UniProtKB/TrEMBL annotation:
Gene Ontology terms describing biological process: ketone body biosynthetic process; L-leucine catabolic process
Highest classification ranks of the organism: Bacteria, Bacillati, Bacillota, Bacilli, Bacillales
CDD domains: DRE_TIM_HMGL
Database matches in Gene3D superfamilies: Aldolase class I
UniProt key word Lyase: yes
Stated name of the protein: Hydroxymethylglutaryl-CoA lyase
PROSITE patterns, A to Z: PYR_CT (PS50991)
Native source species: Alteribacter lacisalsi
NCBIfam families referenced in this protein's UniProt entry, alphabetically: PRK05692.1 (NF004283)
Record's keyword terms, sorted: Lyase, Metal-binding
Length: 298
């Protein structure tokens, strides 16, 4: 059976913008996040406190986090890779932080310059410090359905790392199909395996739509009891350190599907479209989602 309600986490301002070639001016980012805040979404990942040499598109993380208008009831989160990022995120007083790592060593080295086992103690310290400062911490695990460099990824390794992240004190692990290679049968088999060992309450799904599989995989996730999904408005997104990665599942397409299925999200599609038109204009290009295409066609 499908749930009555699904929680959508909007990652457009982070995952969506980190992969953009040109630098979106800070005031445009701020205005877009303010628009998203009015769309009924109650969780927005606004930026990343990473090394700006690695992700120049988000070099204004501190300014964005301190200049947005915080709407009561909305959680404003940011990615942090280590203590340095956490300290800056705390200074900017984000509501929540997210730590991230990969289930394959090659992607891990390329993305954060460390292997999986070198990363675990870094995240452990970061999560401990964040929690002792009163911040909730989310975890991301990338490449769970396939790695652009290594191909197949071990389901046991996904379980091992997910367990470690939960032991550290993250409240949920968002399982990432970083390069959008998973298919519904694979996702079903993997989720059956993982949810036999981990309560699906502690899991979220983060689909990239590189090969058009994201909504089909979402249905499989819903049937496996997972009720939290990441999306980026209009289908922006991608990890610059994962070869061939492209956009996230479009929040607007996801919301459309769920609402048509009678599943609530709290989002207002017409306000999402308004935020979509804003970012299309700011980036100077149309968004890839089906829903925004319908909007453009009038
Ligand atoms: P490193 O070079 O190994 O770091 O990078 P280091 O500790 O050796 O320090 C080197 C320099 O970086 C030093 O500066 C540090 O101060 C600085 P220097 O002394 O040379 O001037 N530094 C920092 N500066 C700002 N903020 C920080 C920070 N930490 C160190 N937090 C590091 C390691 C992790 C920092 C680097 O590799 C990095 O920033 N990587 C970012 C990668 C990234 O953001 N990728 C995209 C997000 S993940 C993703 O998209 C997947 C996801 O969407 C899920 C999915 O789709 O699967 C989440
Ligand atoms: Mg991603």
């Amino acid at each position: 059976a499908y749930p009555d309600h699904v929680l959508i986490k909007e990652v457009g301002p982070r995952d969506g913008l980190q992969n953009e070639k040109s630098f979106l001016p800070t005031e445009k980012k701020v205005e877009w996040i303010n628009e998203l805040s009015e769309s009924g979404l109650n969780y927005i990942e606004i930026t990343s406190f990473v090394n700006p040499k690695w992700i120049p598109a988000l070099a204004d993380c501190y300014e964005v986090a301190t200049q947005i208008k915080r709407k009561p009831g909305v959680t404003y989160a940011a990615l942090v890779p280590n203590m340095k990022g956490l300290e800056k995120a705390m200074e900017a007083d984000v509501d929540e932080v997210a730590v991230f790592m990969s289930a394959s060593d090659t992607h891990s080295k390329k993305n954060i310059n460390k292997t999986i086992d070198e990363t675990l103690p870094v995240l452990s310290e970061t999560v401990r410090e964040a929690r002792s400062a009163g911040k909730k911490v989310r975890g991301y695990l990338s490449t769970v359905f396939g790695c652009p460099y290594e191909g197949d990824v071990s389901g046991e390794e996904v379980l091992r790392i997910t367990d470690r992240l939960l032991e550290m004190g993250v409240y949920e692990v968002s399982l990432g199909d970083t390069i959008g290679v998973g298919n519904p049968v694979q996702v079903e088999t993997s989720l059956n395996h993982w949810t036999s060992r981990i309560n699906p309450e502690y899991l979220a799904l983060h689909f990239h739509n590189t090969r058009g599989m994201a909504l089909a995989n979402t249905l499989v996730g819903l049937k496996a009891g997972i009720h939290t999904y990441d999306g980026a408005l209009g289908g922006l997104g991608g990890c610059p350190y994962a070869k061939g990665a492209s956009g996230n599942v479009a929040t607007d397409d996801l919301v459309y599907m769920l609402h048509e299925m009678g599943i609530q999200t709290g989002a207002d599609l017409s306000r999402l479209a308004q935020a979509g038109r804003f970012i299309e204009e700011a980036l100077g290009k149309p968004l890839d989602s089906h829903y925004m295409e319908v909007i453009r066609a009038g």
